[in-house]
Amino acid sequence: MTDNRAADKRAAVKIHVSDLRKSFGRLEVLKGISTDIYESEVVVVIGPSGSGKSTFLRCLNRLEEPSGGQILIHGVDLSDRKTDINKVRESVGMVFQHFNLFNNLSVMANLTLAPVDLGRASKEEARQNALQMLERVGLADKADAFPAQLSGGQKQRAAIARALCMQPDIMLFDEPTSALDPEMVGEVLAVMKQLAALGMTMVIVTHEIGFAREVADRVLFMDGGVIVEEGTPQELLQNPREARTADFLSSVL
Amino acid sequence: MGQIISSYGWLLARAMGQTCLLALLGLFFGSIIGLVFGILGVLQNRVCRAIEVVFVDIIRGIPMMVLAMFVFFGIPYGVKNILGVSSFTLNALQAGTICLALNSGAYMAEIIRAGIQSVDRGQMEAARSLGLPYWRAMQRVVLPQAVRTMIPTIVNQFIITLKDTSILSVIGFPELVNTGKNVVANTFMSLQTWFIVAVMYLIIILILSKLAKLLERRLSYDR
Amino acid sequence: MFKPFEYTDDNGDFVGIDVDLLAAIAEDQGFTYDLNSVGWDSAIAACQAGQADGMIAGASITDERRASGWIFSDGYYQATQCMTVAADSDIAGFGDLAGKTVAVKTGTQGAAYAESLKDEYGFDIVYMDDSPTMYQTVTGGQAVACFEDTPIMAASIKSGDLPLRIVEGSENEGAPYGFAVFSADEQELIDLFNAGLKSIRENGVYDEILAAYLG
């Protein structure tokens, strides 16, 4: 699979990042990140807390405003003033650590709000689509429930379904299992695996090394605001070249 | 007491109506003012936030009785002498409504600002990540949640505003306290009159609290 | 504050016709008292609650107040009431008040006078707490006229140089002001007051006090 993609690299670059920088006040969190992410690629970003990996992810749909560098999402420059960021976000789904389901809306309304509001679908179409997505994440019976009535794992699966309802071609996951009880991690990872198998382009910030080994096409190890090392799971997880990578892996495994 | 009720009952009942009218008008416009300034207070734009702070600080810093004098006498004076419109006057109801709206608006602005800020940032981020514009996200996701947490505080503010109508007795608005003073002056029956007035306030406030409870129940979404 | 019956003067002293009359009467009758300035509404409540023995506050003697159990002294001052309008007003009499708003001061004989005319001439009444505010509603245009004791109105217009004018022929017959107590136990105080009042009327002190305030 990796080889096929290598054949037409240029055409299939989904996300192009070059020299991305981000500072909060005087604190520089990202110190020049460059990478290309290809169609259907599953990229897992690992690294110690404070390494800047979540900030990197949040820059990709401009939830954080970059301080410097360039990001192209299917060729569209995010820092260009003429770029309609809302249009870009429609095609870039995001899943958050704390789920962020809309507490005031039922699961169904969570899923249909954006598609209907943005004129992507009629109410009925959005509803049918949402039911399909709920089916896919195993929550068809929870359509009328409110977020407060769901378990953590159910919330996160609903949140994934919500993002999928916009029919994105890129999905960003920001530590999707970190806030879950251990017994619920599996159900969320299963949904993500299924998504990867369907060819979704995914960028995942996670601490689940096992998941990275199993699903990732490429693993990025970040520390101190830079990408220290990257490679296939086999390369990076079994035989890290950098001492910092090895240290980190030994501390989490 | 019976004597007061038989001689002045209708007058006091009408004053109760005037109190309700003034409170409703003041709260209606106060809510609009509060919403506008409350939202200004949560915007990214520094100028907008500064406008909210200045408005709130000025209005909260002036006792309403003083504000009432400014509005009732000062606004018509200013319109006449600065704008040169000689026929302009404000009656006590108009001036009272302006005072109450400004006063309750300032407090509501703070309640609404705090309410919006109490909604987890993730809610706005999730809405924005789906491509919803800021105002749609505010309207569909953040405000409904903010309003629910604000309701007990807003009801509290409504009750305070309702009681603040009594301050407008100084500009001669015939609400309960103004009328009560009058009944006391005529009959010299102070305690009895104020007892009746107190009961009337209590009735209005109990009704208001009941309505608020109903509203709170209707707006609850997670049960 | 109810100028010139009781008010705080430029020196911060509490003075007025009521204050001086009471002092003269007490001196004449040989009793002592504490005087607290608590405002009209609180004065009434204080007497009713037994916190005060009596009140002297420019209170008119009326049957309605008597019916509530109050006991009044003999009248110590009698004034007519009149209607006052802005100096440049077109209003020439009560007939011009239809549909207009008139300001009065709560609890005064002027208020009672306006109330007695209200239905016949079809105007609205707003009740203010004190004279300055009442005058201001007329000078500011929020009310077209106010009702006040004639000598007080005349003195205020003169001393404050107010752009107001008393409407000719608007005076009533007037009613007396009395010292008031709430409880029959205070009858002795009323008797002392009446005796003292009679005495200072005879010895000229009464006229001196009135002259000092009303000119």
Would you give an account of this structure?
Chain A is α/β, with parallel strands linked by helices. Helix content of chain A is 38%, strand content 25%. Chain A is built from ten helices and ten strands. In chain A, helix 6 (152-164) packs parallel to helix 7. The model of chain A is unreliable at 1-7 (pLDDT under 50). Chain B is mainly alpha-helical. Helices cover 83% and strands 0% of the residues of chain B. The radius of gyration of chain B is 21 Å and the shape is flat. Chain C is 41% helix and 18% strand. Chain C has two domains: 7-77 and 174-214, D-Maltodextrin-Binding Protein, domain 2, CATH 3.40.190; 81-166, Periplasmic binding protein-like II (D-Maltodextrin-Binding Protein, domain 2, 3-Layer(aba) Sandwich), CATH 3.40.190. Chain C starts with 6 loop residues before the first strand and ends with a helix. In chain C, the strands form four sheets. Chain C has a five-stranded mixed sheet with strand order 7-6-8-5-9, sandwiched between helices. Chain C is α+β, with helices and mostly antiparallel strands and 215 residues long. Chain C is globular, with a radius of gyration of 18 Å. The longest helix of chain C has 17 residues, at 187-203. Classes of the chains: A alpha/beta (253), B mainly alpha (223), C alpha+beta (215). Chains B and C meet through helix 3, helix 7 and helix 8 of B and helix 2, helix 3, strand 7 and helix 5 of C.
Task: Please write out the topology.
The complex is a heterotrimer of chains A (253), B (223) and C (215).
Chain A: H1 2-7, E1 13-24, E2 27-38, E3 42-46, H2 53-59, E4 68-73, E5 76-77, H3 85-90, E6 92-95, H4 107-117, H5 123-136, H6 152-164, E7 170-174, H7 182-197, E8 201-205, H8 209-215, E9 218-223, E10 226-231, H9 233-238, H10 243-252
Parallel strand pairs in A: 3-8, 3-9, 6-7, 7-8
Antiparallel strand pairs in A: 1-2, 1-4, 4-5, 9-10
Chain B: H1 2-40, H2 46-61, H3 64-83, H4 92-118, H5 121-129, H6 134-164, H7 176-187, H8 190-219
Helix pairs in contact in B: 1-4, 1-6, 1-7, 1-8, 2-4, 3-4, 4-6, 5-6, 6-8, 7-8
Chain C: E1 7-8, E2 14-15, H1 17-29, H2 40-49, H3 63-67, E3 71-72, E4 77-79, E5 81-86, E6 101-105, H4 109-121, E7 124-128, H5 131-139, E8 145-149, H6 150-160, E9 164-166, E10 175-177, E11 180-181, H7 187-203, H8 205-214
Parallel strand pairs in C: 6-7, 6-8
Antiparallel strand pairs in C: 1-2, 3-11, 4-10, 5-8, 5-9
Helix pairs in contact in C: 1-7, 1-8
